[in-house]
Design goal:
The protein has about 210 residues and is an alpha/beta fold. The chain contains 9 helices and 6 strands. Strands 3-2-1-4-5-6 form a 6-stranded parallel β-sheet, with helices on both faces. Helix 7 (about 160-170) links the parallel strand 4 (about 150-155) and strand 5 (about 170-175). The termini are close together. Residues about 10-20 and about 25-40 have low confidence and may be disordered.
């Protein structure tokens, strides 16, 4: 049995990062901008005035620089996540991380917050594979599992996570404490809705 987790992308206030980036691009910091996720920062042309669209690459470079130094400043586990992962691992469930967050940061965050947990794979966004809801990231994880691992769960807090699981033909667990909420998860057709981290273990081990 396998549990596939994702790491929320908004682990640091994006307004702070964006202001840092904009302040280093002349004449752009006067435009009020909020970037809610790293994906939005990668599309940061929309955050710049028309006469500064050519600074998009510079903004992304500054974002990466700042985030690389501060990505753990305000990042912490949700309540009971550590205990739930230990319960699953102790029950023989194989764990993996599948996220659209850049892979180098996904690995660093996982190593820093959950050093004692053994993950089959920690995979994130890179230039080699398409992002979720494409199943490429899950296919790579499945390829690293024994053939007898025939039941899997995609666990996340957004419709993209649920759709990824459905595209791969596996069960999905939507977590209501994330950034999107219950309605989006229900609308996406999540097989299970977790109100607490302990619910995740109950769904998987039932």
């Amino acid at each position: 049995m396998t549990a596939l987790l994702r790491i929320p992308s908004a682990t640091l206030p994006m307004l702070q990062i964006t202001h840092f980036a904009l302040s280093d691009i002349p004449s752009t910091h006067t435009k009020n901008t909020i970037i809610l996720s790293e994906t939005a920062c990668r599309n940061s042309a929309s955050a710049l005035p028309e006469d500064k669209k050519d600074d998009t690459d510079k903004m992304l470079e500054l974002f990466s620089e700042y985030y690389g130094e501060h990505f753990l400043d305000k990042t912490k586990l949700y309540p009971q996540i550590r205990e739930t992962l230990h319960k699953l691992a102790d029950s023989g469930v194989k764990l993996a991380v599948a996220t659209n967050k850049p892979e180098n940061f996904a690995v660093k965050i996982t190593d820093a917050l959950l050093p004692e947990i053994s993950f089959v794979k920690v995979l994130g966004g890179n230039s080699k594979r398409p992002k979720k809801p494409d199943t490429a990231i899950l296919d790579e994880i499945f390829a690293a599992l024994p053939d007898e691992e025939n039941r899997a769960f995609m666990i996340g807090d957004s419709n993209v996570d649920i759709q990824t699981g459905k595209n791969a033909g596996i069960e999905t667990i939507g977590c209501v404490w994330g950034f999107r909420g219950r309605q989006e998860l229900e609308d996406a057709g999540a097989d299970h809705i977790a109100n607490t981290a302990d619910d995740i273990a109950k769904f998987i081990l039932e």
